[in-house]
């Protein structure tokens, strides 16, 4: 993406993550922020969501590698500067709602009046059409709850719907999707000369992620999709089991006729191979409750450390149910550079997950997020403004 310039008028995480990924792929991403407030996610430290004196990782995550340009788009001068920047860009990226875009005059036609070859990208909560197109939303609501995901993973006996696995879970997936769509749009423009308008939403992402379940619900006419807990798994070889030290191991051995003998031997119960209740995949399904019990009893005999050794060389797929902190020391994560070492603007070292694709077997270059308005003067000089003109804009309050 070297030579590709992206203008980003967006805040929070979902859409900015797309810009962050593009920086790892070489793009020059200009983050447009208000001169006084900036991206509201910069203020998370004061709200207690970030450790005092620590790295604002929730801002670094979606803003790595960008250049920050502070413009007041509500002023005529600020908007004119934005459009001069737009004239030099390949992509315009925003998550502002339709009403806000109209008010600021940064709709598709407004931007294309200054650059008819720019790819215009909109990310939203629930899509650009329909009665809710003006409503905002977050991944907890639009991606997780509305898509059916929260309902489907919440055991009925729990009594409440579980929340997402962690902050920005849907946002980061959505940003990756948008980055891929932008890449496709750039390829299309190169081949045809046509600049596309690209739309993504958290609701569409959630529906896509739940695609197999939604299709299955329709195919079987199910109002609620069947739910199981480990004790009632329909296929005991696709399940999780507790160890002697109260950790969990997940196994996915879909070809149970192939993997069942090996698994029970490792569990120390080779006699189960000839048990008439478990002699075939079909019989194991009919007697799944009994099989779950014997497999659970087998896994409960050893600690996690012991199982790491015992399961190390088996053919069937398995994994330790790790904590997020354990992922930092996962040997495969380290061997493949899936997590980068970064230093923020204050000189504090921290860890940041890299974009989950690599080109020519090398990770993307992960750089720190910019300080508020850090690159305003630099970018304005690049588009031809003199320092005297920049000073006048600062005095007028149009730029920082």
Automatic annotation (TrEMBL):
UniProt GO MF annotations: transferase activity
Keywords: Transferase
Pfam families: CoA_transf_3
Taxonomic superkingdom: Bacteria
Name of the molecule in the record: CaiB/BaiF CoA transferase family protein
Originating species: Nocardia jiangxiensis
């Amino acid at each position: 993406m070297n030579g590709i310039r992206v203008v980003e008028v967006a805040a929070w995480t979902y859409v900015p993550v797309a810009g962050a990924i593009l920086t790892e792929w070489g793009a020059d991403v200009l983050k447009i922020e208000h001169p006084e407030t900036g991206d509201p996610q910069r203020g998370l430290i004061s709200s207690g969501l970030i450790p005092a004196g620590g790295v604002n990782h929730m801002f670094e995550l979606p803003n790595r590698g960008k250049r920050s340009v502070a413009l007041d788009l509500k002023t005529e001068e600020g908007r004119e500067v934005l459009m001069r920047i737009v004239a030099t860009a390949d992509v315009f990226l925003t998550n502002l709602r339709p009403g806000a875009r109209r008010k600021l005059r940064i709709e598709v036609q407004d931007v294309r009046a200054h650059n008819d070859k720019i790819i215009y990208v909109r990310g939203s909560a629930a899509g650009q059409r329909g009665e809710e197109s003006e409503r905002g939303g977050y991944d907890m609501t639009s991606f997780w709850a509305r898509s059916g995901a929260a309902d489907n993973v919440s055991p009925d006996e729990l009594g409440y719907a579980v929340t997402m696995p962690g902050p920005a879970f849907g946002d980061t997936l959505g940003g990756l999707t948008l980055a891929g769509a932008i890449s496709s749009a750039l390829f299309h423009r190169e081949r045809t000369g046509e600049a596309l308008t690209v739309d993504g939403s958290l609701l569409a992402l959630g529906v896509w992620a739940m695609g197999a379940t939604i299709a299955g619900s329709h195919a079987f006419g199910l109002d609620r999709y069947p739910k199981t807990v480990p004790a009632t798994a329909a296929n005991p070889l696709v399940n999780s089991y507790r160890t002697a030290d109260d950790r969990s191991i997940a196994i996915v051995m879909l070809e149970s006729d192939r993997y069942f003998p090996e698994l029970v031997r490792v569990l120390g119960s080779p006699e189960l191979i000839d048990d008439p209740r478990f002699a075939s995949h079909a019989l194991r399904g009919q007697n799944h409750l009994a099989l779950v019990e014997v497999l659970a009893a087998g896994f409960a005999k050893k600690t996690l450390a012991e199982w790491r050794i015992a399961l190390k060389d088996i053919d069937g797929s398995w994994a330790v149910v790790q904590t997020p902190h354990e992922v930092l020391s996962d040997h495969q994560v380290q061997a493949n550079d899936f997590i980068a070492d970064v230093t923020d603007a204050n000189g504090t070292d921290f860890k940041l997950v890299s974009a989950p694709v690599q080109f020519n077997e090398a990770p993307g270059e992960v750089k720190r997020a910019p300080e508020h308005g850090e690159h305003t003067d630099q970018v304005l000089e690049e588009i031809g403004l003199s320092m005297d003109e920049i000073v006048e804009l600062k005095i007028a309050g149009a730029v920082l």
